[in-house]
Amino acid sequence: MRKAFHDYGLLEHEEEFVGVSLGYDYCAEHEWGIKRMKELFAIPESTKDNLGIKCRTITNCPDRLSFKKDGNYALL
Questions:
Q1: CA–CA separation, 34 vs 8, rounded Å?
Q2: Cα-to-chain-centroid distance, residue 49
Q3: Domains of the chain: which residue ranges?
Q4: Angle subtended at Cα 44 by Cα 38 and Cα 47, rounded to the nearest 5 degrees
Q5: 38 and 59 in contact (C-beta within 8 Å)?
C-alpha cells in the first residue's frame, strides 16, 4: 500500500483513541493491501446491506495494541 498524503493519523474522541485514518490521495491503491489489518481489527466487508460506516468500523482491538499519548506525541 502506498503512503497517503491527506488526512492520515490517529483519531480521538474526548481524549480516547477511537481509530486510525489511513488517509487518501485520490489513488485506488489505498483500497488494496490492507486485508490483514482488516482481519486483525475485524472490520467487516462491504455488501449491499453493509455500506458506509458499517463496513469501516473496527469491531475488535488486538490485545497487543496499546495507545500512549504525552503532550504533542502519540504512540500506537
A1: 15
A2: 21
A3: 6-75
A4: 130
A5: no
State the residue for C-alpha cell 453493509.
Answer: 50
Q: Name all contacts of 62-69 with Cβ < 8 Å and 24+ positions apart.
A: 67/10, 67/17, 69/15, 69/17
Q: What is the DSSP string of 10-71?
A: EEEETTEEEEEEEEE-S-GGGGSS-HHHHHHTTPPPPBTTB-GGGGT------TT---EEET
Q: Which DSSP category does 1 fall into?
A: -
Tell me how far apart the alpha carbons of residues 75 and 68 are, in angstroms, rounded to a whole number.
Answer: 5
Q: Give residue-wise pLDDT tens across range 20-57.
A: 777 776 666 555 667 888 888 888 888 888 788 777 78
pTM above 0.85? no
Candidates 75, 37, 70, 74; CA nearest to 56 is 37
